[in-house]
Design brief:
By secondary structure, the chain is mainly alpha-helical. 56% of the residues lie in helices and 0% in strands.
Length: 254
């Protein structure tokens, strides 16, 4: 007679703020790794990992926008919070779209080492989707979670800047567009909790253009829409929808 073994239960999602802090830790480790020169294959793989993390964090932020404060009826403040965080999610997905052309041209790169920082960032970003699927708690706890997410966004930005410092021109332009989109995400997330936006990656030398390169935003207005230089309300919805569900997104090597 064959014995059956019970299937172990799935691990419980992390609390929202803990997931945001874990994200910041993973993003910081990836940023430090990506600040060093990488071989072409590893650089290509890191860009693919950044793409995957941006996509998943855009999806996760849509869940964060639905935060429920127990015992408090939904009012103007809750709707304003949801509006700003949803806008931040769109900027994250717009940042992901900025790398579409890069991955189409360069490919996904070789299979990663599961212990490398970029792979860990991908896993952490996926965990954040689960942690923020039905978030609830006090408004103070909600705002602390958003602050940790803003800090993590700054570290993701630092990682993109590190990769841009050693990138070929096509990839460099895409990464600079990612940095611009993440700056807008920080601004909208900061507005969600009523705080001024800070520079997402201050005093980082890699934010300067590479010799012989031109910033993709040179000569253009600061206020651009995600991905294609359009206002947020003009971003093609059919492109965003491809990134709003993990199962419909480009596979990434994470």
């Amino acid at each position: 007679m064959t014995s059956t073994h019970p299937v172990p239960p799935l691990p419980q999602p992390q609390p929202p703020a803990a997931a945001a802090q874990a994200l910041a830790d993973a993003a910081g480790a990836a940023a430090r790794a990506w600040a060093r020169p990488l071989s072409p294959d590893r650089h290509q793989r890191a860009v693919s990992q950044l793409y995957s993390a941006l996509r998943d964090l855009g999806i996760a932020a849509r869940g964060l926008a639905a935060w429920q404060v127990p015992g408090t009826p939904e009012g103007p403040a809750a709707r304003e919070f949801a509006r700003h965080v949803t806008s931040g999610a769109r900027w994250y997905l717009g940042a992901c779209i900025c790398l579409d052309g890069v991955l189409a041209f360069e490919g996904l790169g070789p299979l990663p080492d599961p212990d490398e920082p970029g792979a860990a960032l991908c896993r952490t970003a996926r965990n954040v989707i689960l942690a923020w699927r039905q978030p609830s708690g006090s408004s103070e706890y909600r705002d602390a979670t958003v602050r940790a997410f803003i800090a993590a966004t700054g570290l993701v930005t630092a990682g993109a800047l590190g990769l841009a410092a050693y990138a070929p021109r096509r990839t460099f332009i895409g990464l600079q567009s990612v940095v611009a989109s993440l700056a807008e995400a920080v601004a909208t997330l900061s507005a969600a909790i009523g705080e001024p936006a800070a520079d997402p990656a201050p005093d980082d030398s890699t934010s300067r253009p590479l010799p012989g390169s031109r910033r993709p935003d040179a000569g253009r207005p600061r206020d651009r829409g995600p991905g294609a230089g359009r206002p947020d309300d003009q971003l093609p919805r059919h492109r965003l929808r491809r990134h709003q569900q993990a199962g419909e997104s480009r596979p990434a090597r994470c």
